[in-house]
Amino acid sequence: MNRLVDATSPYLLQHADNPVDWWEWSDEAFAEAKRRDVPVLISVGYAACHWCHVMAHESFEDAQVGALMNDNFVSIKVDREERPDVDAVYMTATQAMTGQGGWPMTVFATPDGTPFFCGTYFPRPNFIQLLQSVATAWREQREAVLGQGAAVVEAIGGAQAVGGPTAPLDAPLLDAAAAKLASEYDATNGGFGGAPKFPPHMNLLFLLRHHQRTGDPTSLEITRHTAEAMARGGIYDQLAGGFARYSVDAHWTVPHFEKMLYDNALLLRVYTQLWRLTGDPLARRVARDTARFLADEMHRPGQGFASALDADTEGVEGLTYAWTPAQLVEALGEEDGRFAADLFTVTADGTFEKGMSVLRLARDVDDAAPEVRARWQQVVGQLLAARDTRPQPALDDKVVAAWNGLAITALAEFQQVAAGHVSPQDADANLMDGITIVADGAMRQAAEHLATVHLVDGRLRRVSRDGKVGEPAGVLEDYGCVAEAFCALHQLTGEGRWLTVAGELLDTALARFAAPGGAFYDTADDAERLVARPADPTDNATPSGRSALIAGLVAYSALTGETRYREAAEAALGTVAPIVGQHPRFTGYAATVGEALLSGPYEIAVVTDDPAGDPLVTAARRHAPPGAVVVAGRPDQPGVPLLADRPLVEGRSAAYVCRGFVCQRPVTSVEELIAELG
Fold first, then answer.
1. pLDDT by residue (tens digit) across 334-343?
2. What is the rounded distance in angstroms from the CA atom of residue 184 to the CA atom of residue 378?
């Protein structure tokens, strides 16, 4: 009996009609394996995963494979996005056993959850042979199987250990991290490493803050070049905005087509901050259109942001997105079709499959003549309308707390920068104004959704769908990302309630997730016990739980002046510091927060009767040092500690620039404020 029909996860629902007797992750599933004395087959994936779909079509939809699985195993299907704790434990086992990882992940375990054989994608013939071999080994070589499992669990325990060496995350260490990133930088194509190439959003955030602190031109150039290369490449949707998960090549041409919420949130921050620091028109456009993508394509009305758009459309990668020259002519006419083919590098040979091309931007349109920009925008609109008539990729519409936190933080930063960088004379001022209004509404709805639906009895839940909260408990990254988001929203709105809830989340995290030596586990002390308790300090596709929590602690401490949160952040950063200098590509978010601490972070309070339009507020946000917090509002505004006991100066607006709540004299002119922040 397939038990997935009532699942809340879109990924599990994709498998509800399989001829496999799937179970959801549960104590009952493991009890059934014990009763039958058979191994557990744990299959882990996610809804937007291309190779998960391939293995499903080849194997899980096949009656012969289903019969083998049903006769010899209890099969459990896991959405890695709902249960990152389960995914982390068994991914560590898979990497220990095979030297690599990925999804779909295929794990064979004993009825107590101990893994003894792990892998990823298996073609159908190989999978059939594997099922038969594992079933035979379980019946005839049980002792060897159990011994293998014990060895794997020992390896997991070592990989997830806490309480190791610590060091201060100081300036020399951050300088060394920036230098090592520069040595690994792909000066030709941008980014780091070869194919497949992932957008290095957290490393770019770190390098931007490093440049701010040190003036290092290399850090800025790496960020600028990589941002431009990605924005011109096929990894970026040249028609609707939004970034794909990664590029299958080293030069950003052909993406793996799924679009993840977390990538777009983190990249929105990169382009927003690059725009803020340099005024770069390409960064401005990509930030604007990524914000629009999040608000239009990913936001669920009255709820939060969806998790992902699928890699496939009707089982075919790129069906929605790729073009031939003939298709461009059909959509645009002969003359504009040739113009678009040249502009977007669509050739007869193609850059993708079957003569199709993924659109890339071959020309510098942001600085082009007005008539060229107008023609480009007209072509984009017509192509998008034509593309909308094609089959569209499925949307994984579950709301993940941590990823929504990342999106809220990104949109709050975008709102702050857009408010200070756009004048009515700008050519696209009306477009920018419309996008900021829609994005602001989506951001606020997402925050309300997290605060009212995901927060249950003072504890965060990981996911919701269709407005209903799921059962999986929040993990450390949920608490950290949501707390940081609420701190960002407090700064944007001046509403004290967001700061209050952020503090409550951080207090829960400090009480429930603490580990020896200042570290943190990824699961709470009262969470379901797995074969190991995960505690990964490294930043990968998203910030680690530890880095996310540190960011929330630093922001909250700066906004409230409560030093115990900063002390907890510094201790936790000390547990990551030994990795930062050696492996900066996997500690980007930790290094980003480290730069904020090294800078201060500055606490900037602007007392004013006009927080939305006061030039002092605009200047504070535009020139804020790395990681600074900025609040604006009336003196002694309730719920805003930074505005307490800070009066107007002779009836005029005033800015107070502080570090560690030690403030310089208030200033009343933009020039004086910029000088103090310089």
1. 999 999 999 9
2. 40
